[in-house]
Structure formats: C-alpha cells, structure tokens
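Please predict the structure of the following assembly.
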Amino acid sequence: MVEKYDTVVIGAGPAGTAAASSLKAQGQKVAIVEEDLWGGTCPNRGCDPKKILYTAVEAKEQADLLAGQGLNTQSSIEWPDLMANKRNYTKQISPGTHESLKNNGIETITGHAQFVDQHTLEIGQQTIEAQNVIIATGLRPRILDIKGKEFLQTSNEFLDLDEMPESITILGGGYVAFELAGIASSAGAKVTLIHHNNRPLKAFPEKLVQTLCDQLSENGVEIILDQEITEIQKDSASYRVIGNDFDKKTDIVFAAVGRIANVDQLGLDQIGVEYSSKGVKVNEHLQSDVSHFYAVGDSAASPVPKLTPVAGFEANYVVDQILGDHKEIGYPLVPTIIFSLPKLSQVGVTAQQAEEDTDRYQVRTVNVEEWITYKRQHEKQPLVQLVIDQKQDQVVGAACLSMEADEMINYLRLLIKHEYSANEVSQTLFNYPTIASDIQYLY
Amino acid sequence: MVEKYDTVVIGAGPAGTAAASSLKAQGQKVAIVEEDLWGGTCPNRGCDPKKILYTAVEAKEQADLLAGQGLNTQSSIEWPDLMANKRNYTKQISPGTHESLKNNGIETITGHAQFVDQHTLEIGQQTIEAQNVIIATGLRPRILDIKGKEFLQTSNEFLDLDEMPESITILGGGYVAFELAGIASSAGAKVTLIHHNNRPLKAFPEKLVQTLCDQLSENGVEIILDQEITEIQKDSASYRVIGNDFDKKTDIVFAAVGRIANVDQLGLDQIGVEYSSKGVKVNEHLQSDVSHFYAVGDSAASPVPKLTPVAGFEANYVVDQILGDHKEIGYPLVPTIIFSLPKLSQVGVTAQQAEEDTDRYQVRTVNVEEWITYKRQHEKQPLVQLVIDQKQDQVVGAACLSMEADEMINYLRLLIKHEYSANEVSQTLFNYPTIASDIQYLY
C-alpha cells in the first residue's frame, strides 16, 4: 500500500527540518527524505564546522596581535586536535537530527527521491504520495570543468582534512575561498588563492575587499588575480596548477568556484517543475511551476543570498503558505559575512548601489583603528563603511572589515531596520566599552 | 576683571567635556575646570584602561579554553608589558582632552574650584562668574574607616601597578572587586576577595552571581563571605588583613568598597546646594536646590547606575535644559556589565523585581553550554536569564553570565526596547553563527 502524506520534504537540512517540524506540529502528516547527512550542509560541512575551525584561528590571531603588549604567547594551530574537536561536534549532528525528527513523529526516509508524477515519488523500493512537496535539497560545490578536474577537492574535504598540508591552492574568489584561505594560512599552510578576474568578493565594497586582500597578503597568503586555470596535473606527491603562462606546484588544490543546486537528479523535469543550477524556479510564494511544489533555502532560485538564516525564514514562510496563508514573501534585511582574517560583513544598501545614485546616497568610510575597541585589540586598519540616504537622512546600509564585523553589522542591521537617527543612537545606552557603544561615534 | 561665562563646568570627565563641547557648539561662552586628569576617571583610570588590561586577560582565557582543542598555546600575562600597553593608551588622554577642549574654544582652567557665591567661583587666584553651573566632578574610591586604612590601595593604584604581586587581597563585593579579582587572578596572582556579607553583587541575580563565584573559585580565587575586616597591619614586606577570628598575610590590599562623590570640597554647602556622598541632590531636571546649578554623571544623585553612557546621556540632557528645554528627564534602558571571568551583565526588569510579582513575571534561566557559540569556545556553564512579562507576553529583562554577556545583553537591550515577540525575533536575520543568531532559540 502506498503511504499518503500531507507534505513530503525532500532534504533534511536547516530549511527542510524546520518546515517538516512546523508542519507536523500543526497536525500534518509529514515525511522527510534525506540521502546524505541528516541536518544538511550547515551543521555537517558548512557554517558550524567552519566556525569551530575559525574559533581556534581567531583565538590564535587575537593572541598574536597582543604578543608583546602584555600577553606572553606562543600559539599555533594543532590541526589534528582541531579536527578532532570539530568531529566531536559534527559526529552527533546526523544521528541526533534523525532521532529528533523521528521523535517528533515525522516519517523519515533515507535514500534518493525520484518523482514519478506530480504527487508520487519513489525512494528506492518505497513509493509514497504527497499532497504538497517542499524541495530543500541544498547546494553542492561546483567543480571546474577543466582537464584534471578529478584532482580538485572542495570545501567538503577541506572541513574534514586529517592533516594540513604545507602548501595549498584555492581556486575561486568568493566567500568560501576567502574563508578557507584565512583558516589554512593561520594553521600554517602556505596558501595561494587564484581568481579568474580582478574583482573577488564582488558583492562587497571594493575598498574593503582590497584591504582584506592586503591584510591576507601581509600574513603570507599569495593572491593571484586575472588568472584562468586550465589544467590540474598530478605529480608524485603533489599537484601542478596550470594556466596561461602559469604553472605552480602545490600539495592540494581546492575548487571554491560556486555551488549548484541539488535539484537535477529528482526527476523534476519529467513532471513540469522548472529549475536551473541556481535551484527551482519559484514565484513570490516560493511555488514552482507546479503549484503544490515549493522550494526553500539553498535549492530555491529566490532573489536572496543562500544562507542558513534565509533558509529558516523561507521554511517558515512556506509552512504558512501550505497552511493557507497567501501573502507574497517579503524578505527582511539579510546581512552577509565572510569569516576571513579579518571578517568582512555587510547589510542593506551596498556601496555599489550607492554609487549608481550619488544624488541620493553618500558613502562614508571610517578607519576605526584609534577607537577603544580596536585599539585595545591592536587591530590593523579596521574599517566601517556607512551608506547614508541623504533624502531621509538615514543610514540605510553598512559594511565592516574587522574582527568585530560580525557583531557590528548585526547591530547596524537592527539600527537600520528601526531607522535610528544619530540622536536616537546617542540616546541608546549600551554596555561600555563594547562594539555597540562605539556606534554613536559613527552616526 | 572677573571673566563671565554663560556656563562653567566643574570636572572634565565624559559628562563635563560632553556638556562643555555641546554648549560651546551652540554658541555659549563656556569654561571648564579640572584639578586632576583631563578626561576624568573613565579613560584615565576607569573603564578604558580596565578594558585594555581585560583584553589581554580575555585573550589568554579564551586561548586556555581551546588548549588541546586545536590550539597549541602557552599564554601568560606579562604584567609590565601590559602596563606599558595601557600607559601608552592613557598617557595621551589628559593632554589630548585638554588640547581638544581648547581647540574647541572652551576656556580651560586647571585647579580646584571653590564657590564664593551662587554665581562666583575661585580657582586658585582666578575668579570667574557663571550664569549656569554644571557639577561633573565624578566619584573617588571610598576608603574603609578601619585601623591601618592608610595601607589600603584602590582601583586607581591597581590600574597602574608596576608589578603584579604574588598575592593580593581585595576587600569588597561590588563590580570593581570582581573585575580586579578576575584580572589579577588571570595575571598569576593568588587572589583573595573578602566581602562583609553573604550577597556580593547584590544588584545581579543570585543564581548567576553564585555561578560566577564558583567559576572564579575554580580558577583559584579565594572568595570569603560574611567577614568584616577590622584592621590592616603592615609587616616588613607584606600586610596582614585582620577580622574577627581572621588573619591573613598578603602582598597588597585593595579596598573596592564603593565610591563617593567629589562634591564635598567645592563650597556647595555655603551656597545652598545640597549633596551627600552619593552626589548633588537633583530633581527631575537634574537641577540642584539652586536652580542654575545642575549635576550630571557620577556626581549627580540621580536614580540610575553611575556609568559612562549614563554620564553622556545626562550631559546631553542638561545641555538641552540650559538651552531652554523644560521636559523632565526620562532614562532609557541602562545595561550594566561586570568584566569578570566570565562577564556578567543585565538589563531591564531584574530577577529580584520579578520575584516580587510572580503573577506578572516569569524568570527563565537557560544553560547555553551546548549552543554553537559557547560550544565552539568550550565555555563552562554560560547562563542566560530572561524575565518575561506574562501579561504582555514580552521579554522585559535579561541577565547573562558568559564571555559573550556584554554583546548578548546589548542585543537583548534593543530587542526589549522594541518589544520583539518570539515571532519577530525569528524573522530577524543576523549573521550566522554569531551571538545574535542564537537569540531566536531563547525567545
């Protein structure tokens, strides 16, 4: 007998598990299908393990900045210990998530989902039916289509490396490339980052990206721009990274050249659900061309950055849609962050957008090196950039390059949302001295 | 000839300098009088130097927590270097502040102010007249009135110690005592903290204070409660701290038993301005009994914690009063923070207040040790406490004990102010994973 469900969720990452749990809590009969690790990319091989590695790196870098300033320190990253620490965290994620879903009364099915028709899918030998379907299958790293591509590794392998090699090469100029470069360099590897054009991290302000590149370079990362890599060759124990007039020997090569949606192996094209490498094509209700098929998080081609908090937001939204709400999705402010050395984060109207309308927007970049928060940590060239809407006399966007950028942008996100004026900021008392108590001097 | 000013400010700390600068910017003729360090307590011998010492301590403690978890670390505090680092910061404060005031066109007068009548004061040989007076003279450490009190040192000396002795004893149970204890202990001293009753940090929730005491004790701080110290004796190179049935040898003794307002030497009693050890008695306009005498910041007996952000707020308020505004002062939410090991911070309705009205308030204490922010740092027993107004279904107060307490309470302060519901918090996307992105799981 074919089991029938109100909703079947494909993919048990942050988006899928959130949607499944909410629908179940609202009384639906729910199944969730996962073919890989329960919990998905973020806690297994994404944000969380990355942050665990970064935590040790951050502690080392902060200690190094204070060396000779009162801290007698000899710190280095002990990669095998750090990996054991990470694995100690991640090993519980998949079984724990699976168990938790089962305990919530959700039917969990392990295997690959294949749609037979618009309401029927097979997982191996099992066939089930669903009134609604939520696609939440995430993204996978894209592999460059070059000669020797079989020698390329991805962030998945980086985050589970047993040993940190002496030299590593990272192909790419996006956030993953800059995060891996910072971690590996701090862990003692000689890092080369190669990007095919001259504008890495193109969503971020040029001035801040340039300063980040300068700082990484000063710390020993070799950054090579405008270099198209065409081939990877394997030597005995190492690799050669080859481009036009370029040939470099390295111990390991990572491709961090974007990610593609895991929606191409589900049989969706057979049942009228349109998709691309960016994910399932969705409307303002996160519905695909087939109205009872929704897509959320990384596997939805929605017009927002593919981030864990966005995945949760979209999951909650789709739950409401399935339960009968019909309003179009409206996204809140979405901050973005690169945990490199230092951190780079932004929110709201970007400097690039501001440059397209200089009558309306003013961009102000402040070097905050002499401020107590940065001075006490001996940070080098921390920058905060504000985008001001001159008509409204309001800060509408911000970017920050510093070891405090993550929290600084979180604060500014709240102040931008609530349209704080300079006077209101000065009347908002924070703990002193903290990142937040500095903000009155920015406005 | 006697020079006449629109406003004379007594005391050039954060409150006084802010008021003087604003009034001058608004076109007033302004003088400011300082008899000690320009810039006042906060940047010279308060928050800022304390935070500089704490920064190295924090880096050491965070590295220690990660030892064996991926960080190969041998860190210790090198006190003379740390002091040099601090002095490098503080040495610029007094001359820099003085210069900046002069450059702004404010008359700066060095010396002790003595009021002759309600509009006239003398500073040494100089006599000036003022239409308005702002008292902003701050607080000084209180010295216990016991035998051998001349052997007691205060936070002023602690923050400028050339060497950290092997053993130190701190008398007191307030925030200064707990901050000095954390720093000294991390710097390698054997620390004894002695408090006369059994409830140190009485403004903070008992559960969190108890946990803080436990953690300090585990890290080697001896905390002795219910012990009244009656005498300090000097031996050859050390001291004896003596109470009933108590006698302890130590290298140095600090009294951190509160602070008293610097308003008793100005001749205020002669001209009808009432004051106590808590400061100038003020009304809801921060006016003293003599209406053109205002008091702000630490030297005003206003019903708020004596903190730098409050000083700035009150200074701005009084500037508006002098320039013609007449509305009563209304204080925003004031968070408070203890930079001990770990940090302890709170804002809004306290657990104590909640216990007095259990029909209305619910107190929820959460151990967040397993959350990604704390897990990745291997923090021990981090606690977050929320006070919920059950009628409004709103979080109205919060306290936190963790190394992230400063920023956590800053965030909660904003969310409490804007009356966020659980649903609104979940729809507020922050950088992930950060302190702020955890908050949705608290609400």
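The longest helix of chain A spans residues 47-66. Residues 342-441 of chain A form a domain with the Enolase-like; domain 1 fold (CATH 3.30.390.30).
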